[in-house]
Amino acid sequence: MYLGYIEPVFRPPSEWKSLILQVTNGCSWNRCTFCEMYTADQKTFRPKPQGDIEKELKSVVQSGMPVNRVFLADGDAMTLSFRRLEAILAAINHYLPDVQRISSYCLPRNLKNKTVAELTQLREMGLSLMYVGCESGDDEVLQRVQKGETWDSSLAALEKIRQAGMKSSVMILNGLGGRLLSEQHALNSASLMNAAQPEYLSTLVVSFPLGMERFCNHPLN
User: Reduced to 3 states, what is the DSSP secondary structure of residue 138?
Assistant: First the structure.
């Protein structure tokens, strides 16, 4: 079986049994000061050609490996246009007709130009779960870490996901507000989650395994 991964490849912990199908490389935003997942030279954002995706799906079929779930990698697959996503899902359904669930990371901005009707069609093709990195519900914290989102933009995306009949799994980062903004980070994140009512919520912890240079050198920090 051949899967043309450009390493490193990340996935949510709950997708450990899924086929990781890398339909994009890296993250199209890639400005968040707390994140170094896609900062290596080889992780410059670019979509994978449809032909390459289909070759990999054929390889999976030829291997005989049973596939029940598919996760669309990398960190920003939902930035692809509706037509590109529709073509990818159609290929998955063609080659892996027994797949029960397709999921993806999703930045709130990814859904700004996608209609509920389009998302509903993608859900009907199997894309049923979005992992949304809200990180915080506090606008000041979001500005300081250069997330490019707000309380309002995050809620709008989560509501659109719900309206399309999809489920959302939201990530909030404990510690992102530091000592100075800790209280407002916690309160406004809780406010966002109470308003959105996602099906799943994960509270993760900020860490800097490669050091704090990227975080501390940003002009807002």
Answer: coil
Distances from the Cα of 21 to the Cα of 35, 74, 79, 150, 216, angstroms:
22, 8, 15, 30, 34
Fill in the amino acid letter for 66. Answer: P
- Structure-token match 């500005």, residue found: 143
Tokens of 82: 């509706």
The domain covering 13-216 belongs, at the CATH homologous superfamily level, to Aldolase class I (3.20.20.70)
Lookup result for tokens 């709950």: 14
Q: Note if the pTM is more than 0.85.
A: yes
Residue 76: cis peptide before it, omega within 30 degrees of 0: no
Q: What is the mean pLDDT of each run of 10 residues along the chain (221 residues)?
A: 92 95 95 89 95 97 96 94 98 97 96 97 98 97 95 98 98 92 97 98 80 54 46
Nearest one of 29, 57, 22 to 44, comparing CA atoms: 29
User: For residues 126 and 99, is the Cβ–Cβ distance under 8 A?
Assistant: yes
